[in-house]
Amino acid sequence: MSLNEQVVRAASSAHPRPLNTTFAYGTAGFRANADTLDSTMFRVGLLAALRSKKLAGQHIGVMVTASHNPEQDNGVKLVDPHGEMLHSSWEQYATLLANATSDDALVTTLHHVIQATGVDLAVKANVVYGHDTRPSCRSLVRAVVDGLAALDTDQVNAGLVTTPQLHYLVRCLNTQGSSDAYGEPSVEGYYHKLAAAYTTLATGRHLLPALTVDCANGVGAPKLKEFLKVVGTDLLPLVTVRDTTTVAGSLNKDCGADFVKTQQRAPRGVDLVPWQRYASFDGDADRIVFYYADAEGTFHLLDGDKIAGLVAGFILDLVRDAGLDDVKVGVVQTAYANGASTKYLTEVLGVPVTCVPTGVKHLHHAAESYDVGVYFEANGHGTVLFSPATLSLLSSPGPSSPTASQSAALSNLRALVDLINQTVGDALSDLLLVETILLHRQWSPAQWDSAYSDLPNRLVKVLVTDRTAFVTSDAERRLDRPEGVQARIDEAVRGVEGGRSFVRPSGTEDCVRVYAEANTRQAADGASLFLPLVITDPPRRAAGLTRT
Ligand code: G16
Question: Cα Rg for the chain, rounded, in angstroms?
Answer without folding.
Answer: 23
